[in-house]
Amino acid sequence: MKITIIGGGAVGLLTSGYLTELGHEVDLITKTEEQASLIHKHGVTIKRKGIERSYKVRVTSFQNNLSPNADLYIITLKQWHLHDFFLQWNGTKQPILMLQNGMGHMETAMEYLTESSLYAGSVTHGALKIDEVTVEHTGIGDIVIGPWLNNCPPLVDLIDEVHTHFPIHYTNDIQYILKRKLLINLVVNPLTCIYQVKNGELLNNPYFYKNVRGLFEEGIQVLGLDDLEWEVVKKVISQTSENKSSMFRDMEKGLPTEVEAITGYVLKVAEHKGISLPLTSFVHKSILGLERGKCHE
Ligand SMILES: NC(=O)C1=CN([C@@H]2O[C@H](COP(=O)(O)OP(=O)(O)OC[C@H]3O[C@@H](n4cnc5c(N)ncnc54)[C@H](OP(=O)(O)O)[C@@H]3O)[C@@H](O)[C@H]2O)C=CC1
Ligand SMILES: CC(C)(CO)C(=O)C(=O)O
């Protein structure tokens, strides 16, 4: 496929390298001209388990008119970049795949992208941007994609179930997959940020654990998920026990967090349903307050 990837961050670099490896024709769109010229010169490098591999990727910095004839556009921006980006972009009629955490971003996408077939994806890889051209693949997961609205055809040419370190699966129920990831991010991300601990500490410390369970119970009530998801949440926390959550890392770097797309989104749905979520509301305000103290922007 001819694929345009928007955003030269951790997920954008990882996706552009691996989709090139899989034989797709990739155009990467960075925010800055500096990053574009570095990638033009050195390619994109993916580090995995101490081994580095570089990929030659076509790259340009963002302008309103992105190469208009891609078969698919993949947006790998943070959710809080999206309004600004959509306001500046002339858009496309071609299919668009959104790869953000949370769920609030899909409402934003629907607001702006009225002419495209819209797809959502859930990423469970760990990716850490090392420098402008290098990303470390810190955890091998997968990407599950699916149509956001029922009338979008499956992206058959993108599916690759067998790739050992970058499998892409397809689902007809991406809403459920995103909700499940949202639930994990709802309980893990804000608490790790408030307590300033790695993910695993949420299970090890009995007091933190009680709050994980409390947030989980509020989350499943609003999202309509089953108590059985508790085992999934604990498994993901164990598997990522040595990770600092993305929200904790953003906060440490003085960047805005994705709290509105995660906790803020759940609170909005709860309000709509007339459900009160005291613990979720407490962590939401706590993160906003901490951001206010630390954020550079
Ligand atoms: N990293 C990970 O392991 C995982 C991430 N995710 C999700 O994926 C999404 C992306 O995350 P991640 O890649 O880590 O985030 P990053 O912040 O690393 O990447 C976003 C990139 O988009 C760039 N950008 C901003 N505006 C524009 C623009 N107008 N045109 C082109 N590029 C632009 C940013 O540039 P600048 O920094 O200069 O603003 C940044 O390089 C998030 O929603 C995250 O939650 C999900 C699972 C795992
Ligand atoms: C799964 C988890 C919690 C891993 O750290 C994550 O998705 C994040 O940090 O955003």
Automatic annotation (TrEMBL):
Protein name per the record: 2-dehydropantoate 2-reductase
E.C. code: 1.1.1.169
Pathway stated in the Swiss-Prot or TrEMBL entry: Cofactor biosynthesis; (R)-pantothenate biosynthesis; (R)-pantoate from 3-methyl-2-oxobutanoate: step 2/2
Domain Ketopantoate reductase C-terminal: 173-286
Family, as annotated: Belongs to the ketopantoate reductase family.
Coiled-coil region list: none
Function: Catalyzes the NADPH-dependent reduction of ketopantoate into pantoic acid.
Domain named Ketopantoate reductase N-terminal: residues: 3-148
Cell cycle among keywords: no
Top-level taxon of origin: Bacteria
InterPro entries reported for this sequence: 6-PGluconate_DH-like_C_sf, 6PGD_dom2, ApbA, Ketopantoate_reductase, KPA_reductase, KPR_N, NAD(P)-bd_dom_sf
Record keyword Hydrolase present: no
Alphabetical keyword list: NADP, Oxidoreductase, Pantothenate biosynthesis
Pfam short name (any one): ApbA_C
